[in-house]
Design brief:
By secondary structure, the protein is of the alpha+beta class. It has helices spanning about 85-90, 165-175, 195-205, 220-230, 245-260, 280-295, 305-315, 325-340, 380-395, 405, 475-490, 490-500, and strands at about 5, 15-20, 30, 35-40, 45-50, 55-60, 65-70, 70-75, 295-305, 345, 350-355, 360, 365, 370, 375, 410-415, 435-440, 440-445, 455-465. β13 and β14 (about 370) form a beta hairpin.
Length: about 500
């Protein structure tokens, strides 16, 4: 009997998934372990392997659509299944059996027994067709109720986020505002490569066709589609290279017009609509839940960053790379070991302490907020933590993080200092009870040792958002003061490293 393939639950928090790319086509043979499709979850883009061998008999949900976990997305014909088994299975599950390749399109009903009109007497009468079994339900049978299309745009205007591309090519395209759906990929399975993006940009740069008065700067593909669909390019905002209108811009324009209808009363007020990724949807749900259910309170302290800078310089002379983030990670891990009540969560009517010290580091990757987790920080040396965190951040930038890389965080560090932010407070990520916010390195006047004058000093502001159900103000202040002490006396971080290596 054929088998259904359902939208898998690829992470503990996954409620729905978006089908990025089908790697197998209808009618194609598949083997157990083959990559069947790519799915965007609330954590990462993941490849899904076939867990049975056979033939991909029917794709129920096309690429680009979002469906709930457990929704049937395909049907696999097993090796022992007959055509009748497949037809019966499809009929029982509300899907049409695949039409025979040689079957002609349906025609209007006729009456073969009626005499032919006189004007057509010279035409040969059609040969009666042999009696055939009753036709099966048409392919347009009622679809599964949970499969809801997410867009009504024409098929030749695909969502650029669903175009198959390597992580480096996708990152380069986003960095340079290039529409991936306009590029013919030369990689495996038609994937767009970095070289494809670069050739596309070079072709645009070499297009020296002069613009006449009233002309709109647009890519050739966008111009052709606009002509076919009757779209006025002057009403479309271009976001491509040098402000060109791209296929992506046309897609946004068409989708916006479809939602607004014919009135267009809000067209002058609202601009481009941004489709949310599964990761962004999850982040929004999580942050809203946190602010609605977690009683936040906030404290902050200024930290003397001079000793940290001196330690970094000394390590650099020894050929070792140490960043502020590495030192803050190590200090936070030590402080959490010494204040286990901070490394805890609130659950129903009780406080539960976490066993490991797992520190999440917030990272911005191409406009998305990610927080890979450095796990089991307890007892790890500074260099070990630095190596692990650097590897995770690199995986995040290459979009290679797996759900396990996000899971089980017990404390978060969010650093906006490199963007010039002096002070801020982040939102606690459930089920954690705290998040540390790191501000920029700044030079301020500080009293000299003699108290008679001021001298320049380096300071960083550390903010701590706290779940008041888990931690009270005094304990939170003591915990933040311990982080400050460790960073202002960073030799202890190195001593802890040496003790960990013994």
């Amino acid at each position: 009997m054929p088998r259904e393939v359902k939208m898998p639950k690829l992470s503990d928090t996954m409620e729905e998934g978006t089908l990025n790319v089908w790697r197998k086509q209808e009618g194609e043979a598949i083997a157990k372990g083959d990559i069947l499709l790519e799915i965007e979850t609330d954590k990462a883009d993941m490849e899904f392997e076939a867990y049975m061998s056979g033939q991909l008999a029917r794709i129920l949900v096309p690429a680009g659509e979002t469906v709930a976990v457990g929704t049937p997305i395909a049907i696999v014909r097993l090796e022992a299944d007959s055509d009748e088994d497949v037809e019966r299975f499809l009929s029982e599950h509300g899907q049409a059996a695949p039409a025979a390749a040689s079957a002609p399109p349906p025609s209007a009903p006729s009456e073969p027994s009626a005499p032919a009109p006189a004007a057509a007497a010279s035409q040969a009468a059609p040969t009666p067709a042999p009696e055939a079994p009753a036709p099966t339900a048409p392919r347009t049978a009622t679809p599964l109720a949970s499969v809801v299309p997410t867009s009504s745009i024409p098929f030749f205007m695909p969502d650029p986020d669903r175009v198959r591309a390597t992580p480096r090519a996708r990152g380069l395209a986003q960095e340079r505002n290039v529409d991936l759906s306009e590029i013919a990929g030369s990689g495996p399975d038609g994937a767009v490569l970095v070289s494809d993006v670069e050739r596309y940009e070079e072709a645009l740069r070499s297009d020296d066709t002069p613009l006449m008065e009233g002309d709109v700067h647009a890519t050739p593909v966008a111009v052709r589609i606009a002509e076919e669909m009757g779209i006025d390019l002057s009403r479309v905002k271009g976001t491509g290279p040098s402000g060109r209108v791209t296929k992506r811009d046309l897609r946004s324009h068409v989708e916006r017009q479809a939602k607004e209808g014919t009135s267009g009363s809000d067209s002058s007020l609202y601009g481009e609509e941004i489709k949310l990724s599964q990761k962004r949807k999850f982040l929004i749900r999580n942050m809203v839940e946190s602010k609605q259910t977690t009683p936040h309170f906030y404290i902050s302290m200024d930290i003397d960053a001079g000793p940290m800078r001196a330690l970094r310089a000394a390590r650099k002379e020894q050929g070792q790379r140490v960043t502020f983030t590495h030192l803050i990670l190590k200090a936070s891990a030590l402080a959490l070991e010494r204040f286990p009540e901070v490394n805890a969560t609130f659950r129903e009517d009780r406080i539960v302490r976490f066993n490991p010290v797992n520190v999440a580091i917030a990272v911005d990757v191409q406009g998305e907020l990610l927080a890979p987790v450095v796990k089991n920080c307890h007892g790890r040396a500074l260099e070990d933590l630095a190596e692990i965190s650097d590897a995770l951040i690199e995986k995040a930038r290459e979009r290679k993080l797996s759900p396990e890389d996000y899971a089980d965080g017990t404390f978060t560090i969010s650093n906006l200092g490199m963007f010039g932010v002096d002070q801020f407070y982040a939102i606690i990520t459930p089920p954690m009870s705290t998040v540390l916010s790191v501000g920029s390195l700044r030079t301020v006047p500080v009293p000299a040792d003699d108290g008679a004058r001021f001298e320049p000093g380096l300071r960083m502001n550390f903010g701590l958002a706290v779940d008041h159900r888990v931690i009270d103000g005094v304990r939170a202040a003591q915990f933040l003061a311990e982080i400050r002490r460790l960073l202002e006396q960073p030799s202890e971080l190195v001593e802890a490293q040496e003790q960990g290596g013994d």
